[in-house]
Structure formats: structure tokens, C-alpha cells
Amino acid sequence: MQELSYICTLIKRCFMSNYMEETRIITVQRLREMALRGEKIAMITAYDYSMAKLVDAAGIDIILVGDSAANVMAGYTTTLPITLNEMIYHASSVVRGVKRALVLVDLPFGSYQGNSKEALNSAIRIMKESSAHAVKLEGGKQILDSVTRILSAGIPVCGHLGLTPQSINKFGTYVVRATEADEAKILLEDAHALEDAGCFAIVLEKIPAALAKQVADELTIPVIGIGAGRHTDGQVLVLHDMLGINEEFSPRFLRRYLSLGEEIRNAVWRYVDDVKTKDFPSDAEQY
Ligand code: KIV
Hints:
The protein is an alpha/beta fold. The protein has one domain: Phosphoenolpyruvate-binding domains (TIM Barrel), CATH 3.20.20. The chain has twelve helices and eight strands. It has helices at 2-23, 28-36, 49-57, 69-72, 84-96, 116-130, 144-152, 168-171, 181-197, 209-218, 239-242, 260-276, and strands at 41-45, 62-65, 102-106, 134-136, 157-162, 201-205, 223-226, 234-237. It has an eight-stranded parallel β-barrel with strand order 1-2-3-4-5-6-7-8, surrounded by seven helices. Strand 3 (102-106), helix 6 (116-130) and strand 4 (134-136) form a beta-alpha-beta unit. Helix 6 (116-130) packs across helix 7 (144-152). The structure holds 3-methyl-2-oxobutanoic acid. Residues 45, 64, 66-68, 106, 203, 205, 226, 236, 238 line the site of 3-methyl-2-oxobutanoic acid (KIV).
């Protein structure tokens, strides 16, 4: 009898430690451990409380409050118009829905380029007013002063290279970046500079898979890809794209997991029909 109870306790302990390991909150240190042991990092965007709660419960490692909110939440054609106040609003909504994931927030266009003091103030506002865990900035050596100054305040920074949508007016197009040797060389140097400065991770967007592999092989910090092939330490997708809500956007790198746009339209069409035909509300649905 005593033996049985001992075995039960052992099983319970084993189960509990696995459970705690699974639900342990994600930190920048834990992300690094994951990358070092070859466990892929799953990152997704979210911009509001309800979606953040769902993706967090599904076991996502990093929630990116991306400035893609400008596109998918506000309907702008670029990410440039979103403001720092708007990013803080989205970030604080997300943080309230999250128990486990690391919440990473984009510094919006105009809040960090060319002025490291302003960059630090912007990052501090995000951390203080939203309680997020880290910030992301687009660019390499040209924003290194801002990166270093933000890091000096103890704020974890993630870099973002390759297709950097805040520079769309410089690029003129959203095509794959760094396909030529000179741009690939600069990207590689930028990745090293960001790692050396102390960034905890780097996002690589829309670059050849072979180049992304080289960056991931050469760096020790986690490298997260979007449209950058399978050799990076993790992947990120925009939630509205992978759920099929943003139906107009269908680049080759995107895998659609749902056709939610169609489902939502159908559900609302049925609701409209029920109201018009006086089917809704029924006797059971009124007081
Ligand atoms: O804003 C965003 O959603 C991003 C991802 C595309 C990486 O930066």
C-alpha cells in the first residue's frame, strides 16, 4: 500500500514538473536555450486582448505586436502611419491576454531612426505603458546607436533585417531582398553588428533561404524567419494572413491554416438573414 502511494507521488511529481516546464513563462534566456538545443521558436502577431489570449493558450512562444497593425487593423497600405500611442494601445491590450508568451513590440516608423535619445524614450514608453517584454527595430548599422542606447536601459531588443517594411519608400517594392551578393554581404554584417551590440534575436524577412541559413549558422542568438526558409531558429507569421482574414495577401511563403474570412462572412450572412426573416431572437433567446 505504501509502495503504491509512493509510486503515485512519483508519477504526480513527474507530471507536475513536465507541466511546469511546459507552462514556464518565455524569457529571452529561455528563447536562447530553445535555439541552442534546436527547438524551433513559434512566433505570431496579435494586436488585441482576445486574439492574444487564444494564441497564448495555443502555446505560441513570442507574440509580436507588429506595426503590421497599420495594415491589418487600420487598413493603411504601409506600416508608416501607425503612431507610438497606437502601438502602446495594441501592446497593452495584448499583454492583458497573455500568461506565457514573450510579448515583443515594434517601435513604429519615426520613433527611433536617427535619434537614439528619442529611440530610448519610445522604448521606455512601450515598456512602462504596456508592460511588454521587449522591442523590435528595423535596420542594421544605421540604427546601432538607438539599439545600444535602448539596451543600456535593460530593455531587450530584437533586430529586423531583409525586407524592412518601414523602408518601403526606399525599396519601392515588397520583392525578395538580398538576392545579390553585395546586399547579402551587408545583411550578414548587419546581423553580426546587431548580435555584437547585444540584441536577443533577429527577424529576417523575405530573403533567400540559403542566406537565412548562413545567418542562423553564424549567429548564436535566435534568428526568426518570415519568408526566409526553414533553416532559421523559428518562424513568424502575421495572424490575419495565416487565418485567412487578410484574403488579398497571398505571397508564396504564407501557409493558410484557416479560411476565416469566408467563415466570418458566412456567419454574418446567416445572422443578417435570421434578423431579416425574424427568426432571431427566438422565444428561448429573450427574457
Ligand atoms: O509588423 C510585423 O508584423 C512584422 C512581421 C512581418 C515580422 O514585423
